[in-house]
Amino acid sequence: MGVRTNVSMDWKIGAAKAVGTSHSRLGESCQDNYDVATSPDGEWIAACISDGAGSAKHASIGSMMVSKRIARNLIDCAGRFGNHNHDARLRAEIALCIVTIHDELRQRDGDIADYNCTLVAALINRAGNGWLIHIGDGAAVGGKCIVKPDIEKSAEAWTEVVFSKPENGEYSNETYFITEPTWTDHLRITSFFGKDWLVLMSDGGMALAFRGLIPKSRFLGPVLARVARSENLDSACTDLENILSDPQADSVTDDDKSLIVIVSAGLATYDALDFTDDAPSQPKIPVASLSKNTTSSPVATDSSQAQRQDLVNAISDQSAGAETEENAFVRVRGLFFRTILFLALVVAAGLWIKHCNWL
Questions:
Q1: At 37, is the pLDDT very low, low, confident or very high (cuts 50, 70, 90)?
Q2: What CA–CA distance (Å, rounded) separates 201 from 50?
Q3: Which residue, among 56, 71, 69, 131, has the nearest Cα to 99 in the 3D structure?
Q4: Helices 217-229 and 298-358 meet at what angle, rounded to 10?
């Protein structure tokens, strides 16, 4: 896991992970891993998140190997690409990298299934062109910011969206892994052009950033702004780690959580970033309130705490919403079973009366 960057000033990067309570209460470490790398000339950024399967004995080792190897392989590929017309070549390069990973894992202890993990990756250049690479759950999403003419320093961020959605199995808690024999059936590569931002996330990170497949504006907007306005890589990563490890985040999901944010530095000029696909009843937080105070006064510390609390509140709102949806489901399910029981009693009574009349 790590971030190795020589990125141009056109982009800002933040990345972090946090262990979920489902693992921490058992004394286990975070099974998510990530890696970010850039080309020597700063033209390309490669990012990868891998989520180790909770049921796999060596999931953390598998996800660490996958994240490092895929990120480095993508940068090596980028150095050989003269332009963006290389979809088939990229697929071949990724396939070769995955086969090599499989060979190395088979030389380790246990079965390759002991290293089961997912893959969410991206390769993007200075112009905002690139690819999303995906196997399993988690998500990768990016978009372009369009200035709102009627609102000063405001932009709509949910435009020209590229979205690699999670792929689950028959049940919502099942998915596919890069280490499975059928991985070629589930490898998805999506090209994109002219994006201003990208966010990669494991399924735990997605639980914070989305409600289902609807973007959570009060989370994504401030997160993009925080990274865009960050003074350096360390501060951006620290901010994200604090958000992911907050107890309110654990109230939304008990899974490990990881995020990689790649954002155009130009987004720092906007005071608000909106996502129109967000739930209409959800209030927005102006990005202006999330700007860093660069003075050394005590106000800077208070502002930082307030900024973090805004994001915590956004996470808390999602937790409350999820609880309400769950309660509604329980009520509907109870009504359904009571109705079935009533109908069964009516049928049984009818059959009994018919039987008595026959006698």
A1: very high
A2: 9
A3: 69
A4: 150
Q: If DSSP states are collapsed to H, E and C, what string results for 163-200?
A: EECCCECCCCCCECCCCCCCHHHCCEEEEECCCCEEEE
Determine phi and psi for 286, rounding to 5 degrees.
-60, 135
- 109-122 burial code (b ≥16 CB/10 A, e <16): eeebbbbbbbbbbb
Distances 135 to 98, 179, 180, 329 between C-alpha atoms, Å: 11, 10, 10, 30
Residues 198 and 124: beta-carbon distance below 8 Å: yes
Query: Alpha helix locations (H) across the chain?
Result: 21-24, 59-80, 87-106, 203-209, 217-229, 233-244, 247-252, 298-358
Tell me the residue length of the chain.
359
* Nearest alpha carbon to residue 12 among 268, 267, 265, 294: 265
Would you say the pTM of this structure is higher than 0.85? no
Rounded distance between C-alpha atoms, residue 240 and residue 244, angstroms: 6
Measuring CA to CA, which residue among 173, 204, 175 is closest to residue 117? 175
Q: How many CA atoms lie within 13 A of 102 on its CB side?
A: 15
Contact 205, 244 (CB under 8 A): yes
Region label for 138, one of left (φ > 0), alpha (ψ between -120 and 50) or beta (otherwise): left
- Residue ranges of domains in the chain, CATH in brackets: 2-319 (3.60.40.10)
Residue 27 sits at φ, ψ, to 5 deg, of 75, 20
pLDDT band of 3, cuts 50, 70, 90: low
Name residue 211's beta-bridge partners. Answer: 214
